[in-house]
Amino acid sequence: MNKLILGWIVIGALVGAIFGERKGRAGFGALSGMILGPLAWIIVALGPDKRALCPACNKPIAGGIMKCPHCGADPRKAINAGRGGRA
Ligand SMILES: [Zn+2]
Predict the structure, then answer these.
(1) What is the spatial distance between Cα 62 and Cα 36, in angstroms, rounded to a whole number?
(2) Contacts with 17 (C-beta within 8 Å, 6 or more apart), sequence order
(3) For residues 28 and 45, is the Cβ–Cβ distance under 8 A?
(4) How far is the CA of 79 from the centre of ligand 1 (A)?
(5) CB under 5 Å of ion ligand 1: residues
(6) Residue 79 has what pLDDT?
(7) How far apart are CA 75 and CA 56, in angstroms?
(8) Domain count of the fold of the chain
(9) Which residue, 7, 31, 79, 87, has most beta carbons within 10 Å?
(10) Same domain for 80 and 58
């Protein structure tokens, strides 16, 4: 019985963290997954995306990275370079 509860907590937290990671909320996913299990996975999967968007291609990127994995632009440089380019 205890193993079943332990398995629920471990798997819930692990899967929750994986779901949360995609949204930039691994900590929230792990914590809620620990308590709610599969229900939390759905909440995290449908919840808001906390990641920043690449200013060049507008796709979600991890915070503090030097190069966008989608378009290869430097997110920090693109913020400055994007000025004045509006139509
Ligand atoms: Zn990009």
Answers:
(1) 26
(2) 26, 27, 29, 30, 33
(3) no
(4) 11
(5) 54, 56-57, 68, 70-71, 73
(6) 56
(7) 7
(8) 2
(9) 31
(10) yes
